[in-house]
Design goal:
325 residues, five-stranded mixed sheet
């Protein structure tokens, strides 16, 4: 009996020591830091002010779209993870679920319209992620999470509508080729292609140099196909900045499909206009002459017509800042 009492006493002492150690550890830890950014949190932010009170010019300057287009985009993303399911009413919830619901309403989480507007602002304006997040009175990690969810939602719900990647029908093909030919009479041109570098700095030093492009900064490469109405037909993104346009085109599904059946995708005799950095050996690409001089006026004039016609893809590109998100 004495032995049992002794063991219980020792266990009680050990439990007391552990409790004291845990209490000391908790005392050393600082409480979670809460940053007060604006009165009313996200509702008092600059972005919410644009959303609620902005006119059409404000929408175009900050979100790169009209108020109607933004609302249409919000509706298309209503089934995406960005939009959480409507919470149950307080009358149908009890106990812990009721407390969680009350806490959520007190927290006042941003609605889907604000999330979409915040993502459009960040992608349209560019700049350091902290500056962009401060405009919406949210944290940097929150903005990064929203941007990732936004890109996934656009790919799933918006891309199939506005970028179906299907061959043009007869009427559309004639309209596109006529629009291309209206500039300098060059034809039959169906698409224009160009590449663009998007700022990106990898965290791993082992692969860092793979992302250093020929301009000397770090990026990933995006190659786009555009028609004569400034519509993106296909975009291939993800290759490291060190790669060239031709490297992307060698692995592009659309290029493979057009080589197999060019008449279906480009029309009879249709071609794609590309600069000197993008080509396929003259199969479906039409490229300019390389560095013609004054003794070759016909080649100079062809390059002028080629550049003027291909400029649709240049005008469709959005300027990218050097600040990584």
């Amino acid at each position: 009996m004495e032995r049992i009492k002794t063991r219980m006493a020792k266990r009680a002492q050990l439990a007391a020591v552990c409790a004291l150690l845990l209490a000391a550890a908790d005392a050393d830890q600082e409480p979670r830091r809460a940053v007060r950014r604006a009165a009313g949190k996200w509702r008092g932010s600059t972005i919410q002010g644009y959303v609620v009170h902005g006119d059409e010019q404000t929408y175009l300057e900050n979100f790169r779209c009209s108020r109607v287009r933004l609302q249409q985009l919000v509706e298309r993303m209503s089934q995406s993870p960005m939009q959480r399911a409507d919470p149950p009413t307080l009358r149908t919830t009890r106990g812990r679920s009721r407390r969680i619901l009350v806490a959520a309403r007190v927290r006042d989480a941003p609605d889907l319209t604000f999330k979409v507007a915040m993502c459009l602002y960040a992608l349209g304006q560019g700049g350091p992620v902290k500056v962009l997040a401060d405009a919406g009175s949210i944290g940097r990690s929150t903005l990064r999470t929203w941007l990732e969810m936004f890109c996934d939602a656009v790919t799933k719900y918006v891309k199939p509508i506005y970028m179906p990647c299907k061959p043009f029908d007869g009427e559309q093909l004639r309209a596109v080729q006529s629009q291309f030919a209206s500039r300098r009479g060059l034809g039959p041109v169906t698409l224009a292609c160009d590449g663009s570098h998007i700022p990106f700095h990898p965290k791993s030093k082992k692969v860092c140099n793979d992302y250093r492009n020929y301009k000397g900064w770090f990026s990933i490469l995006a190659v786009a196909f555009v028609d004569s109405y400034y519509r993106f037909f296909d975009v291939d993104v993800g290759f490291p900045g060190r790669a060239g346009d031709n490297t992307v085109l060698k692995h592009n599904w659309l290029m493979e499909a057009m080589k197999q059946d060019p008449d279906t995708w480009l029309g009879k005799g249709g071609v794609i206009l590309g600069d000197s950095g993008a080509g396929d050996g003259g199969s479906v690409f039409m490229n300019p002459y390389h560095s013609p001089d004054r003794s070759q006026p016909e080649r100079l004039y062809f390059n002028f017509c080629h550049s003027s016609t291909r400029f649709y893809v240049e005008q469709a590109r959005v300027p990218v800042t050097r600040y990584p998100l």
